Amino acid sequence: MSSGLLARLLTQARQRWPGLLLCGVVALAATFVSGQYGGPQLLYALLMGLAFNFLATDARIRPGLDLCGRTLLRAGVALLGLRITAHQVVALGWQTAVLTLLAMASTIGLGLWLARVLRRPGAEGMIAGASVGICGASAALAVSSVLPASRENERFTLMTVVGVTLLSTCAMVLYPMVAQWVGMRPSEAGVFFGAAIHDVAQVVAAATLLSGAGEQAAADSAVIVKLFRVMLLMPVALLVAMCWPRPRGGGNSEADSDPEPPDRPVPLLPGFLLVFIVCMLVNTSGLVPPHLSALGSQASRGLLVMAIAAVGVKTQPQDLLKLGWAPVVMLVTETVWIAVFAITAVHWL
Predict the structure, then answer these.
(1) What's the CA gap between 222 and 187, in Å, rounded?
(2) Residue 41: CB partners within 8 Å, gap ≥ 6?
């Protein structure tokens, strides 16, 4: 390694470590609170990050925040591939796979339609639809990262993470009662939970809330369906990266946007999605020992927690108020839609 390259790396490390340290401390605090008292880890990280938003304008903190909000976010999404194998997809059966695909696609379509009706940017409909239709906060962050960067998208992504996490927590409590009310068998209830609840942790929690001998059947089917939805994140993000129209001049035209260099040309296949594919294929091959797969899954979660902490630090609360009521309408409508769709489809199957 040349001395010039080493000096450059050391300079970048010195510039970024304060922001990295801040996001790391927030992530550890959120993990501790979630482990001790329960509740969504990502939401804790977001709220704790917001408490430190007065540091967002500090020139010493900003480089590390940008690294967490972009590079570490994409690394966390890439490592999600270690949670999935092709065998899990095959175990679904084609009927359940089609149900899940249609639920996801229709929810994203509904999000784009609602954005048009409410006269909001199409990117907001895409982020909201993907977060509800695929895997909650992780999907919102991943899809936002491949859309053209703007301050407005950053605000909406933050609001989406808050909203989809709260709605997922409500669904975790309500959907087991709905499943019992409509007379679903445990395995059917598991498919319903996996297809309709946004976050993996809440899916597992909802399945375990079902009492009786069939509890394990509900948990097994719920996790398999949910992991299939997580797998759909890669093709959806890839299609968005390849097909979404981008401003020709690069950068962002908003008056209140952060000063950033013009966007570099977006590659046909973003690197982090390629790593996602490789991780999934390697995990399917059986070359990854179970403990390493679990470690990769934990690392993915940790990186996503740091990324959302950075988003919280960079966001001013008054910016969220500028979005108005539209994000709430979009997220609630999409959540109700995917739940009704899943219940109806499970009944038909």
Answers:
(1) 8
(2) 30, 31, 34, 201, 301, 305
pTM of the full structure: 0.68
- Distance (Å, rounded) from C-alpha 169 to C-alpha 191? 18
Spatial separation of the C-alpha atoms in residues 96 and 80, rounded to whole Å: 22
DSSP string over 19-31: HHHHHHHHHHHHH
Identify the pLDDT of residue 184.
84
Rg of the chain's alpha carbons, rounded to an integer? 20
More confident residue, 11 or 110: 110
CA distance linking residue 39 with residue 169, whole number of Å: 8
- Whether the predicted pLDDT of 340 surpasses 90: yes
158-185 pLDDT, tens digit each: 788 888 877 887 888 788 888 888 888 8
Q: Which two structure tokens, joined as six digits, stand for 152? A: 């407005």
Among 104, 154, 121, 164, which residue's Cα sits nearest to residue 311?
154
Name the residue among 192, 194, 198 with its Cα closest to residue 167.
198
Amino acid letter for position 230: V
Q: Give the integer Cα–Cα distance in Å for 186 and 192.
A: 10
DSSP 212: S
